[in-house]
């Protein structure tokens, strides 16, 4: 048993957490779009890192993974938003034209009323 702060943690819990964390790091490194030799080098330096360095490295890997995996979604969203914007601009232009026609009609009617 180990004591962390006021909590007692069993050896099994520590091993379980470390195993899960190691599997997560392994997955993130394996998912990188880099050469196998670079992946192996990253795995080789992990034991020399402090826990804080490992945590920071894990965060960087996770951000890279999420960025790579969501690029298609981002592109689809940009395309959809551009399409919606174009439709909105067309509808707005049509509405402006209709408004101008109605205003011209009203102006003509007002002029006729003045003349009469």
Present the secondary structure layout.
Layout: E1 2-4, E2 7-9, H1 11-31, H2 36-45, H3 51-69, H4 71-115
List keywords for this structure.
116 residues; mainly alpha; 2 domains; 5% strand; rod-shaped
Structure report:
The protein is mainly α and 116 residues long. It has two domains: 1-69, no CATH class; 70-116. Helices cover 82% and strands 5% of the residues. The chain is built from four helices and two strands, in the order ββαααα. Strands 1-2 form a two-stranded antiparallel sheet. A hairpin with a 2-residue loop joins strand 1 and strand 2. Helix 1 (11-31) packs across helix 3 (51-69). The chain is rod-shaped and about 100 Å long.
> What integer value in Å does the Rg equal?
32 Å
What is the string of SSEs from the N terminus onward? Answer: EEHHHH
The percentage of residues in β strands lies in 5-15%
The biggest sheet amounts to: 2 strands, antiparallel
**Alpha plus pi helix count:** 4
Helical content stands at: over 70%
Strand order of the largest sheet: 1-2
Poorly predicted runs of 5 or more residues: none
Mean pLDDT: 87
Q: How would the global form be characterised?
A: rod-shaped
Tally the beta strands: 2
Could you tell me how far the N terminus lies from the C terminus, measured between alpha carbons in angstroms?
Answer: 102 Å
Q: What oligomeric state is this?
A: single chain
What number of structural domains do the residues give?
Answer: 2
Which structural category fits the helices and strands? mainly alpha
């Amino acid at each position: 048993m180990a004591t962390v702060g006021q909590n007692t943690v069993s050896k099994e819990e520590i091993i379980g957490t470390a195993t899960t964390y190691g599997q997560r790091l392994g997955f993130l490194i394996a998912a990188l779009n880099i050469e196998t030799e670079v992946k192996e080098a990253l795995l080789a330096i992990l034991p020399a890192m402090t826990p804080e360095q490992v945590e920071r490295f894990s965060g960087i890997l996770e951000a890279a993974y999420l960025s790579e995996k969501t690029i298609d979604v981002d592109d689809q969203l940009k395309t959809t938003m551009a399409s919606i914007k174009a439709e909105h601009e067309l509808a707005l232009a049509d509405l402006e034209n209709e408004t101008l026609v109605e205003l011209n009609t009203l102006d003509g009617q007002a002029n006729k009323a003045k003349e009469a």
